[in-house]
Amino acid sequence: MTLQEITDSLGLTCQDDKEITGLNTLTNSNENELTFLENKKYLADLKNTKAAAVFVTKENVNEVPSNTIALVCDEPYIMLAKASKLFAPNVVEMDGEKPLIGGGTKVMPNVYIGKDSVIGSDCTIMAGAFIGDNVKIGNNTIIYPNVSVYRDCIIGNDCILHAGTVIGSDGFGFANTKDGKYIKIYQNGNVNIGNDVEIGANSTIDRAVFKSTIIEDGVRIDNLVHIGHNCKIGRGSILVAQVGIAGSTTLHSYVVMGGQSATAGHIEIAAFSTIAARGGVTKSITEPKKSWAGFPLFEHRQWLRLQGKISNLLK
Known about the structure:
- By secondary structure, this protein is α/β, with parallel strands linked by helices.
- The chain is about 10% helix and about 25% strand.
- It is built from four helices and 35 strands.
- The protein has helices spanning about 5-10, 45-50, 75-85, 300-315, and strands at about 20-25, 35, 55, 70, 100, 105, 110-115, 120, 125, 130, 135, 140-145, 150, 155, 160, 165-170, 175, 180-185, 190-195, 200, 205, 210-215, 220, 225, 230-235, 240, 245, 250, 255, 260-265, 270, 275, 280, 290-295, 300.
- The strands form five sheets. Strands 6-9-12-15-20-23-26-29-32-34-35 form an eleven-stranded mixed sheet. It has a nine-stranded parallel sheet with strand order 5-8-11-14-19-22-25-28-31, with no helix packed on it.
């Protein structure tokens, strides 16, 4: 839709009829996308954005680059939330092509496969599975009973999704108004799962707000794991039961996270890091090949020494 159509629906003023294809972050936006600035710590990203337009407060309007249109408003994050609804796809498509199913694929009774979806060869789709619209599934993948794959998601070759797993549910995104009302931020991205990935029972992987939540090749995810929107889980990583990964977190290759460990959002964990059970990661880990434990987080050996000293106090 045009920028003027968007601003008219939001009660803002803009006479530009430039076509807008979607929403994105300040750093990743292109000349046909809309973005926002809410937090001043991202001012440097605003100055370098390539977005067609940006929701911005009056105090930051002079920081908007010349190639970007400033859409001045009191609450940019609220405006982004409202704009996200304009780009949300249909929950269910009534029109489209019948799904394509490759040779040798077995589809059990009581399975729904949506419009424009493609399933590769030699797959097994068990009873009660829901495969949404425009889903792509590779070859030799097993979908166990009652797995739900929401629309637009991608699953690679040789994957296993155990019972009750949900791929592509909405990320937990809300903008709250000054009077405490929550405005839903529509999650218009998808989940992209690589090859040779196994996901345990009743785990959930949220779709991205923009672009993709990414699970790279060779990842192993246990039961009851939650991965938030816009996360990236690096090649060969292992997430044990009840791990929680907050949104926009990046795990580099071969990270291991023990049971009930968790991360804050918008951080990175270096390759070959190990987080012991119940460890809480609140800041980025930049040095690879180290083990960590506890909350607040310590290097594992240091944490063990600390626990020993605490035990001695009780004797």
